[in-house]
Amino acid sequence: MTRTLTLTSCLLFAVALSTAQDTPPFNCLANDLDLLSQLHANDPEAMARMAADEAELEAFTQQFVEGWSEGQRDQHVISVVFHVIHDNGPENISDEQIIDCMRVLNEDFNRENSNWQNVKPEFLPLVADVGIEFRLARKDPQGSCTNGITRTESILTYEGEQSMKSLIQWPRSRYMNVWVSAAAGGAAGYTNYPGAFNNFPQGDGIVVKHDYIGSIGTSSVQRSHVLTHEVGHWLNLRHVWGNSNEPGLASNCDMDDNVTDTPNTIGWTGCALNGVTCGSLDNVENFMDYAYCYKMFTVGQGVRMLAALNANTAQRSTLWQNQTLELTGVLDEPLLCMAALTSSTNEVCEGGSVTFTDVSYHGVQSRTWDLPGGTPSTSTDPQPVVTYAQAGVYPVTLTVSDATGSMSVTMDQAITVLSEPGAPPPIMEGFEGYSDLAASPWAIGGGQNEFALSNIAAYSGDNSVRKVNTSAMDGTRTNLISETYDMSDAVAISISFRHAYAQRNSANDDRLRIYVSGNCGDTWSLRKQLRGINDLNTGGTMGGVFVPNGPDQWGHTEITNVSNLYHTGSFRLRFEFESDGGNYLYLDDININGMPVGVDEPTGTGSGVIRVFPNPAEGLAQVLLTLTESGPGRLSLLDVLGREMAVLHEGTLPAGSRTMDLPISMLQSGVYLLRLQQGEQSTVVRFVVK
Hints:
This protein is mainly β and 690 residues long.
């Protein structure tokens, strides 16, 4: 049976993560009102035009199919551009993952997938070599060299809808646009039929979540055919059960996909190869079903897609013309036009390794890497693995050549190698004396509007670190990351810092997370989270820009739940801020096994260092002793006049750091002293009890 086409195609089916059992599909977004409204804005006239375009294309398609013979078959080439929309997260997938996706797409459309011969014998004669080849564009719309991949940083990646597509789009008359993002409107991927796009070129293309692109990187083999399914919709294919979003319904037997060689079916979400639902064996292995055992298009589906490419609807017929392919550069022999490189990381500790990758294009015949400070220091490999033994900042140069010449690219600060062991404690960072964070030992990253040095407000001194935060940044994450510290001799690790933050409205629940690493930042462990609706908020609610107006609008946080797993020479600290659209955040006076900035330093001639934290103290406090050598010692509590009140320890003290509780519950509010005596030497520190 035939049924009038609805207005839009669907989101891609769910792909099972295991072939051992059925996995429910993702919801399909065919006829989704929100997505449709992004095209026609609920304008009745626009909706009527869309329906008319669908009907006109269907009439052309039926006429094309009736007149088709295999002798008419020609290879159709389509230029493709991938627009990676990212916020510096995993959605910023590699070129290699996109290239792998293109491999899968071409195999699926040209009967080159390795499993097509495993199709059920009843359908084996129907497996189509569709005759469509997809090539990454080599020229952009301005005629400049490209690898067919663009990258745009935007928080709209978390939405994946029309506003994201509007960030960048190449002319649909020359390119098939594919947007890669962190989200795809709540689905794995989606597109529309050509008729739906005909009068809405600004939406024409396919959106796919990054973890459904290709079979490597953030994706998997099971998810690798998502783009194949979506291209089928983009070229006017329905699901095998018909034009609905719900497989498995008995009423689907009364629908049809307008393809004669795909049996009527209710549709499947599992790989039921012997399924019979509408009186005949179902083609469950079809790319346009929801089952995860996809292997084929039928010949009839292939002809239907070729009909879409020969129709004028949505300018599909211009895509494969020679003059178009010349403009996109895919007919030319590949010539070297860009030297480019990537690295697996831009930061390692001493002794760490980095993998560099040559991503130059096109037609590279030879290459030479110049890798000062690394081992090896030169290479001709496409992906050299380089080890760095000494701390510092190192450049990398890549020179590539073909028969016509050579090109080079240099990254002056490609790799930062951190010390291991790192800086010794105590660490007391008040952000004073820096012109900006780039001049400090702190790294920033993670997205737009990163942490920055500020002299607008500070708990002590003149400077703090500020994170600009507005409602437009909702969902973004940014990081402030320390250098390495040598905590290998620490008995305990104590971290403290000052923070100031306000909400814009009472619903803002921005998050500040504090992570630690014991392996130079290879892995991180969450130790503390402050939330905008409670313990992060120090300034209340403010509609304008929040600037703390004094000490009362600064909070103090301590972290002591850092186990001895992190007592290493490559300890690092990371602050991650996740915006929920609240107000600005400020950080100051970050201390690791130290005392707050602005409090008196220990005085005296002893070889030990004493720290009291928190200081001022209330309720509970601890003493951190750091000794350069072991030996007998006496630790005593004094009043502000220097009179001994109690002996806290007397006897042998080991070298290194150790903590002990400070009994302040018996003390009244006021100023007190701690004195460490080592032979004829002594060290004294002042602390305050609230």
